[in-house]
Specification:
- This protein has eight helices and eleven strands.
- By secondary structure, it is α/β, with parallel strands linked by helices.
- Strand 7 and strand 8 (145-146) form a beta hairpin.
């Protein structure tokens, strides 16, 4: 078993105890006690999972969780001493994968870590473009903003995104998006692409991801400098 776990906890004794238990279970543990240092660390050294305390110096754990979700799908387990249900629900709504309340057993935390890592295995990370595609939940976001795609729009974007630069004809895309439907017009793809471009432009007007190839079809290609 292996994996890098970032422990964000300002109680040094507790953080050290969690690190010891995780390392005994085969994980690599890194400790941070300052909320302001979390985002730079996650960007420069992406962990496999984050244990994130709710109450931190300089920055609240929920705010950190929300911003991490703008560029990464790394699993996050919230740690909190607050027992109010609203805090738990809010943490999960902002993108946390699980939560655990203090006081807790370090063994329970290790068990939760194993479960979340197993459940979230293979979840995609956001690329440098800021585009995040979550195939399990059919969710697409750009710079942390939900694109609010339909299921068909998501499948089309996900398919093109999987092979950047490759050109697909409208018929190839139809076969992928509508595998059991042969009466759909090839112009239906044009309509979906138009709607996708509009939703992306609403978030990043200077970025174009889906490019037309005259007389052939479409391809996904990130702009040279996404913003």
């Amino acid at each position: 078993m292996s994996g890098s776990i970032l422990i964000v906890e300002d109680e040094e004794k507790l953080a050290r105890l969690l690190a010891d238990y995780l390392e005994q279970s085969g994980y690599q543990a890194v400790r941070l006690g300052d909320g302001g240092a979390v985002l730079p660390r996650v960007r420069s050294h992406p962990p496999d999972l984050i244990l994130l305390d709710l109450m931190l110096p300089r920055r609240d754990g929920l705010d950190i969780c929300k911003e991490i979700r703008s560029f990464s799908a790394v699993p996050i387990i919230m740690i909190t001493a607050r027992i109010e249900e609203i805090d738990r629900l809010l943490g999960l709504e902002l993108g946390a994968d699980d939560y655990i309340c203090k006081p807790f057993s370090p063994r329970e935390v290790v068990a939760r870590v194993k479960t979340v890592l197993r459940r979230s295995g293979g979840r995609p990370q956001a690329s440098a473009t800021g585009l995040l595609l979550d195939e399990q939940r059919y969710l697409a976001s750009l710079h942390g903003i939900d694109l609010e795609l339909t299921a068909v729009e998501f499948k089309l974007l996900h398919f093109l995104h999987a092979t950047p630069g490759r050109i697909y004809t409208r018929f190839q895309l139809m076969d992928k998006i509508y595998p059991n439907e042969r009466v759909v017009s090839d112009r239906t793809i044009d309509s979906h692409v138009k709607k996708l471009r509009k939703k992306i432009a609403a978030v990043a007007p200077d970025n174009e991801f889906i490019h037309s190839v005259y007389g052939v079809g479409y391809k996904f290609e990130a702009p040279s400098k996404a913003c």
